[in-house]
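Onboarding guide, step 5: your first structure request.
Type a short instruction followed by the sequence, for example:

Predict the 3D structure of this protein.
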Amino acid sequence: MSATVVTFEELPGLVGKDLGYTDYIEITQDQINTFAEATDDHQWIHTDPEKAKDGPFGAPIAHGFLTLSLIIPLWSQLFDVDGVKTKVNYGLDRVRFTNPVKVGSKVRLHSVIAEVTEVKGGVQIKTSNKIEIEGEERPAVVAEFLARFYA
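The system replies with structure tokens like these:
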């Protein structure tokens, strides 16, 4: 799999472009614990494997915001713009956590460019994204990601 790499001038013509799928990455308990430390969210469904075995999911689950944050490193596998001075993660729209991610699960990102808009000094793109769980029908996260590129 190789990323789609375009120039700044090509951005307006990309509406509807399916960027494809990333490789799968595994969600580990160490990753979950590190996120819990960073965010001070130590809820037992994330950080206590023994208690979580008897919980509603039968295992510890990743924080929803941990899974959401994976959009950035995964997205870099799919897309880049050459010849720009600045790239900015501008925000998110319509975020939903639709399926818990159990520790040991593998996730990947699927992304489609939904909109391209001119902004002062640059271009903003909106991508429709799904973080999928290997072997699961429903995605873990559905979100629209906004990025800006300045020439």
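Each response can be followed by summary notes, for example: The chain has five helices and eight strands.
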